[in-house]
Amino acid sequence: MNDKNDKVFTKPIKKQFEFDEEVAAVFDDMLERSVPFYKESQKITKFFALKNLREDGYLYDLGCSTASLLIEIHRDLHAKATLIGLDNSKAMLARATRKIEAFGADVDVQEADILQYDYKEADVFISNYTLQFVRPLVREELLKKIAASLREEGVFIFSEKVISHHSKLNKDLIECYYDFKKEQGYSEYEIMQKREALENVLVPYSEEENMTMAKNAGFSHCEVIFRWANFATFIAIK
């Protein structure tokens, strides 16, 4: 059996979800089997990142995990640009470093608190399913910091799990998502275990709340460029 397959929630959970070595070891598999159309959303993210990255520009990936997207962006990079990935998980960054070396990619990954980091003026910020793990009280502050660090017309591309404030629709969206996970081979037990582990750790907003937050933070425009049920990819333009 492939030890890179996600089996994290096949046993009883003893703690809240965290990005430790156990999760880092299977994270790429977890993403592809837990996030519908993950590869497609990443292709769109890469497309808009490359469109907006100028010569000698900066791109930051917040919560870069194992650096897969940064490596993909580097592979198709035509401009001379600096690609920086930030994460607070040592386990994720250790795997990211090994992958970067294996692919010979010119990508810099750093252990950092994305709320405190001193950003250079950038063309592009990316965050894949990271904002939802930032406490709501400081989430808008982070977006203000991102907006302030972007050049005019720079972009912030972010993917998030979203909720609906229509209770029946929200329930149906969750059921639709659980059906997807079952199709990927996850058991009812694993699905329940992960939901319990993420309780109060992952706090999603609605599509409208994410767009309002971006506009309140100083972006001139924000809209959805990809969505499947309760997963969405947004682009915010300064």
UniProtKB/TrEMBL annotation:
InterPro entries assigned to the protein according to its UniProt record, in alphabetical order: CmoA, Methyltransf_25, SAM-dependent_MTases_sf
BP GO terms, sorted: tRNA wobble uridine modification
Top-level taxon in the UniProt lineage: Bacteria
Catalytic activity: prephenate + S-adenosyl-L-methionine = carboxy-S-adenosyl-L-methionine + 3-phenylpyruvate + H2O
Stored SUPFAM superfamilies: S-adenosyl-L-methionine-dependent methyltransferases
Residue span, Methyltransferase domain: 61-154
Keywords, comma-separated and alphabetical: S-adenosyl-L-methionine, Transferase
Residues the entry annotates as binding S-adenosyl-L-methionine: 38, 63-65, 87-88, 113-114, 128, 195
EC number(s) reported in the record: 2.1.3.-
Top-level class of the enzyme under EC nomenclature: transferase
GO molecular function annotation: carboxyl- or carbamoyltransferase activity; S-adenosyl-L-methionine binding
Task of the protein: Catalyzes the conversion of S-adenosyl-L-methionine (SAM) to carboxy-S-adenosyl-L-methionine (Cx-SAM).
Record-stated family: Belongs to the class I-like SAM-binding methyltransferase superfamily. Cx-SAM synthase family.
NCBIfam families to which the protein is assigned, alphabetical: carboxy-S-adenosyl-L-methionine synthase CmoA (TIGR00740)
HAMAP family cross-referenced by the UniProt entry: Cx_SAM_synthase
Protein name: Carboxy-S-adenosyl-L-methionine synthase
Source species of the chain: Sulfurimonas paralvinellae
